[in-house]
Each structure stands twice: as structure tokens, then as C-alpha cells.
Amino acid sequence: MKKIASTKLVAAKFCRRVGLKIAFATLIFCSIDLSAQRSDISSGNNLPIAIENYLPKSGDSKLSKDADRFRSLANELQPAAYYATDGLKVYGKQPLVFNLDATAIEGFSSKSIKEMPSVELLRVTINKSADSKALLTEEILTLFPKLKYVFVVSTAKISSSDIAALTRNLSQDQIIIYQIASIK
């Protein structure tokens, strides 16, 4: 009987040690995963970020410098250019925002417009899921030497992998943010 009790005691101690090791390993793994997600959002590693994950909730006033700049460019009135199938329209001098309809990407090139050195935000609008198959080519992206943000706004049902494919030619320091709005 004494041998059984000591075996149970050894088994209980073993389970406690193993359980603590598993809990500790899980804690380490989760903290590594969370810190990797935070660096993805702040470093712009070409993974598309949903707008609700990039900008804090409305009650939270802590914004990173990048997030604050993005919010300003995306929401406030800025000098802007618009390119759609009917051509280019520019409002204001030295546009900071360039709006590009995804249906016009195929016809868009350096022959269509000249370099826009002040553009920081490229907003791509997708209205049909078939338009998400377009590609922002290097030729297009070189027209915007100061480009920091690509903001993909879609009313069609698309995935973050569709957005990643559309923006695969971006450099590492450019941040891809997307918003998928459902229209009823």
C-alpha cells in the first residue's frame, strides 16, 4: 500500500512539472506570435492589414505616427488625383492621394500619366471580385516615389490573399491596408 501511495505522489509531481512546462511553452509561443503580429502591423511587411486592425478603436487616442498619417490622408480633404477608365482628373497642386479604379489598372501606365512625386497614399477601389485579379505593376508603382500606403477599398467579396496578389510588387516599407464594405 505504501508503494502505491509513493507512486501516486511521484506521478502527481511529474504531472505538475510537465503541466507547468507545457503552460510555460504555450505562454512563450503565444507571446512570440503576438509580437510578430505587432511588428507586421508597424513595419509594413507587405501583408495586407484590415483597417480595423491598423487603426485603434475610436475611443483609443494612441495612434502611431504612421497610423495617424494614414488616417489624415484617407479621411481628410487632400489634394488628389483620380484615374478611371475615362482618364485622369487632378484636384489641387501636388496630389498627396491617388485614387485608382481597379477596372482601369490594365490601361494605366507611365504613358497615361507622368510621375507624381508627392503621392503618399494610393487608394485602389474594387467594385467587382473579378477586378481584384488586376496587378499593381512595378511600372505603376515607380510613378509614386513617396508612396507609403496602399489602401484597397472593396465593395465586392474578396479575400486578403486577393489583396496580397494585387499588391505583390510593393516594397517592404509600403503598408497595405484594406477595407471590405458590404453593400446591401
Describe this structure in words.
With 184 residues, the chain is an alpha/beta fold. Helices cover 37% and strands 19% of the residues. It has 5 helices and 7 strands, in the order αβααββββαβαβ. It has helices at 2-43, 51-54, 65-75, 138-141, 160-166; strands spanning 49-50, 80-84, 87-91, 97-101, 121-126, 149-154, 175-180. The chain has a 7-stranded mixed β-sheet with strand order 1-7-6-5-4-2-3, sandwiched between helices. The longest helix is centred in the N-terminal third of the chain and has 42 residues, at 2-43. Mean pLDDT is 76; it is low at 18-44.
Strand composition percent: 15-25%
- Structural class of the helices, strands and pairings? alpha/beta
Low-pLDDT runs:
18-44
**What is the radius of gyration computed over CA atoms, rounded to a whole number of angstroms?**
24 Å
Share of helix among residues?
A: 25-40%
Query: Roughly what is the average pLDDT, rounded to an integer?
Result: 76
Sequence of secondary-structure elements: HEHHEEEEHEHE
Task: Give the overall silhouette.
Answer: globular
Essential attributes:
alpha/beta; 7-stranded mixed β-sheet
